Amino acid sequence: MVTPVTQKPDTQQGWRLLRVALSQQRGGLAIGVVVGLFWALGKVSVPQLTKMGIDRGIEGSGNLVFWSGLVVIAGVIAGLFTAMRRWYAFRESRWIETRLREQIFSHLLKLHVGYHDKMQTGQLMSRASSDLQQLQAFVVMIPITLSNLAMLIAVVALLIASQPMLAMFALAPLPIVNVMASRFSRQIHPAVLAVQQEQAQLATVVEESVSGVRVIKGFGAEQVQARKLKTEADDIWNVSLVAAKIRSKFLPALDLLPSIGLIAVLGIGGHRVINGQMTVGDLVKFNAYITMLIWPLRNLAMTVALAQRASVALVRVDEVLSTPSLVIDPLSPTSLPAASSDRAVGEVIFDETVFSYEGASPIINHLSFSIRPGQAVALVGATGSGKSTVVRLLNRFHDVQQGSIRLDGIDVRQLTLGDLRSAIGIVFEETFLFHDSVADNIAFSRPDAGPDVIERAARLAGAHDFIMELPEGYQTILGERGYSLSGGQRQRIAIARAIVSDPRVLVLDDATSAVDPSKEHEIREAMATVMKGRTTIVIAHRPGTIALADTVILLDEGRAIAIGTHEGLLAENERYRQVLAAWEVRESDGDDDIEVIR
Q1: Interior/surface letters 297-333, b for 16+ CB within 10 angstroms, e for the rest
Q2: How far apart (Å, rounded) are the C-alpha atoms in residues 303 and 300?
Q3: Listed residues 277, 304, 321: the one ending a domain
Q4: Could you give the CA distance from residue 495 to residue 298 in angstroms, rounded to a whole number?
Q5: Which of 6, 64, 369, 454 is most buried as measured by Cβ atoms within 10 A of its Cβ?
Q6: What is the pLDDT of residues 207-235, one digit of tens each?
Q7: Are residues 184 and 223 in the same domain?
Q8: Is 191 left (phi over 0), alpha (psi -120 to 50) or beta?
Q9: d(CA 301, CA 177)
């Protein structure tokens, strides 16, 4: 499957990007080329010294050992510069790969959440890995290819200078090689693009299968994913064969054409030796030089193919790097006011806020409410009422289209993303833990946090006891996404992680959904200390979780239709009772009680 954005790639754009990327490495690449020129000088000297050794050391009265020694010295020089040439080539190629990989990773982290919601993870991984490897493979060939090209030019010049007529016959096939190289370049480009696109699709299937292995096994759908993988693998096989066929038409000609020149040298040159118009050394030199043309010509063809792959890869990488983030830092940011004895912090105000996803109907529709510093508020509403979107807007995962959101009197759009998100700690409904120790997961936002801070946060979140029962306590390495723990345990660690960040505003986005109701009171009691004096937003549907807050805001179709206490709304608001009743029906069907706290 080929995505529409790359079905008709801008070939010129790819070459422009390639030139820009290479210009940033021109110093190191230039050194590699200079080293390669010394290599070429050593290689070209060997046939010339061999000719002189034959003509003067064997047929003449010269010293054969002397000329043999010179051949050895030339070979050693070529060998030393071969090692240096490859070292510089690999150093520069790995550096450009590393620099671009860091650049694309940094840009991916800066891009707005909406971009990641739409983009396939496998596609992004392909751009950050295999596409950059294509660029590295080309860059490593630049000093090698240019030195081979220098050797080729030197060989042609020496052949013409020594025996012009014989050189004309021997080199006659070279213009044909140039024509074929041009045709090869045009044909191989779309084929290479198709291969790289299919590899990205395959990476997507693998990534989704690994990430969703529990769903796959839960539904017994291993064969479904296996068929998807087979389809993508077959697609790669098919497009790779197309590229292979193109190469198979071109590369054999590179072996054949120099061989035709070698036949001319043996036929015509042999007669010239017999007639005394050439020496035996000249004939041996000619044969050696013609043979030396074979690898440079093959190398040039390989480099053309690698350059095509690199240009395609850079177009795909640039698709990411040129994507602007829709949520960025302001040009002149404002700082949040500091807490003081006469000023509490953590005030949140939504003022006539309007937001919609991708031009759809507004999911937040002129929403207005305020939360005082230190106040705990529960957002309650039916599915799709906009509860989680409120949190996304507060944290600037998206920006509002109308109205404003203010934190401690400052529009959140006037704060840097770093300052804003450091001031807001979120425990998401879907808990994500990293493949790391329990302690490092809790201290994720503050890697320098000490053991006392980590343990205090774990105790407040009600996680300390079960952590101490793990094989290595806080140093226990969690499996991917923390699936070695129960859902409730994962959420407690996520709550501890939010506590360590010490935010002005703590958001619990349905954070107790995986906790058994009989155990929920433990987290409620633990969180009471954390919530004291700290603004807290609780997105909830269970009465026990709603009880964490002293004020409830009922959302419906993106509006705040009622504000009050849980008991007051339950007694006076029919819509509030309907929403809670609907959630109770869902829970009674077992939707939320599959996992219980250990």
Answers
A1: bebbbbbbbbbbbbbbbbbbbbbbeeeeeebebeeee
A2: 5
A3: 321
A4: 61
A5: 454
A6: 777 767 766 766 677 788 888 888 888 88
A7: yes
A8: alpha
A9: 9
Question: Taking a C-beta distance cutoff of 8 angstroms, is the pair 443, 498 a contact?
Answer: no
pTM of the model: 0.69
The number of domains in the chain is 2
Radius of gyration, CA atoms only, the chain: 35
Q: Residue range 58-80: average pLDDT?
A: 78
For residue 479, being part of any structural domain is answered with yes
Tell me what pLDDT residue 406 has: 94
Confidence band, pLDDT 50/70/90 cuts, at residue 2: very low
And the tokens for 64? 């054969």
Q: At what angle do helices 11-23 and 130-139 cross, to 10 degrees?
A: 60
User: In the chain, what is the straight-line distance between the N-terminal and C-terminal CA atoms, in Å?
Assistant: 45
330 part of a folded domain: no
pLDDT at site 194: 81
| Whether the predicted pLDDT of 151 surpasses 50 | yes
Q: pLDDT, tens digit, for every residue of 340-388?
A: 777 888 899 999 999 998 767 889 999 999 999 989 999 998 888 888 8
* Tokens of residue 460, six digits: 């407040």
Task: Report the C-alpha gap between 369 and 537 in whole angstroms.
Answer: 12
Indicate if 307 and 353 belong to the same structural domain.
no
Residue type present at position 431:
T
Could you tell me if 123 and 251 lie in one domain?
yes
Residue 430 in tokens = 């879907």
How many angstroms separate the Cα of 144 from the Cα of each of 123, 140, 320? 31, 7, 30
Look up the domain containing 262 and give its range. Answer: 13-321
Same domain as 308, residue 362: no
Residue 564 sits in a domain of what CATH number? 3.40.50.300
Residues 287, 355 within the same domain: no
* pLDDT value, residue 554: 92
Q: Is residue 420 part of a domain?
A: yes
